[in-house]
Amino acid sequence: MTFEGFPEGKVDFARIPEPFFSQLLPQIDHLGELKVTIYALWRLGRMAGDFRYLREADFLADERFMQGIGDAVDDAESSLRESLHRATERGSLLAASVELGGEETILYFFNTPKGRAAVEAIQKGEWRYRPDERVAVELAPERPNIFQLYEQNIGPITPILAEALADAEDEYPQNWIEEAFRIAVERNVRHWRYVEAILRRWQEKGYDVREDRQDTEEDVPEDFRRYTRGGLADYLQSED
């Protein structure tokens, strides 16, 4: 199998910290460990929340990733476990044990300040494992990032707005962002402040699109200002 090259147009880039190349990469001498480390960097970077972790089951569930770890299923699982062990032994990944349904589950965090804080909290019994707090991610065809969604649905991006979009992409899950843009388009309110208001509302009150969807069946107001009289009024401000 050969790589056909990256597609034309905008593609989403993964963020990899510079110390990975200057300090960690020269130390890694095992292909499986390298794959696990890069995959964990990519996948954890696309998750939301303060405590971002992976379980062995998360690696196993991603068929595309596992195909690159080993030819046969048994070989791939064995290679994965060895690679995770090497990464934790090296210190690039941190492992913490939690009890789930009477069984021990290992959570893998990247060795960052937040990762170390998470492991410390688990060891002190100050953090309770909740399996539904993360956003699922896998090696699937790329979905539009927040910049593509803005350009496709609202318009050109200014430098100041680009910073706000980047911050929002770090703070909110991908599916929230996509749904918020979809609601704004359906209501014909193509305005970043409106999209941002929906995201903040979900963050504060919980993600539930039913209330937001209900308004789309009513007459769409002609003027954007009429939206400021609704539940999102506290968030909406004029956009430069």
Describe the fold and architecture.
The chain has 240 residues and is mainly alpha-helical. It has two domains: 18-123, Winged helix-like DNA-binding domain superfamily/Winged helix DNA-binding domain (Arc Repressor Mutant, subunit A, Orthogonal Bundle), CATH 1.10.10.10; 146-229, Arc Repressor Mutant, subunit A. Helix content is 48%, strand content 7%. The chain has eleven helices and two strands. It has helices at 18-24, 31-45, 56-61, 63-67, 73-90, 113-123, 146-153, 159-171, 174-186, 192-205, 209-214; strands spanning 93-100, 103-110. The protein has a two-stranded antiparallel sheet with strand order 1-2. β1 (93-100) and β2 form a beta hairpin. α2 (31-45) packs across α5 and α9 (174-186) packs across α10 (192-205). The longest helix has 18 residues, at 73-90. The protein is globular.
Give a brief description.
The chain contains eleven helices and two strands, in the order H-H-H-H-H-E-E-H-H-H-H-H-H.
Count every helix, treating DSSP H or I runs of 4 or more residues as helices: 11
Whole-number radius of gyration? 21 Å
CATH class of the largest domain: Mainly Alpha
Corresponding CATH architecture of the largest domain: Orthogonal Bundle
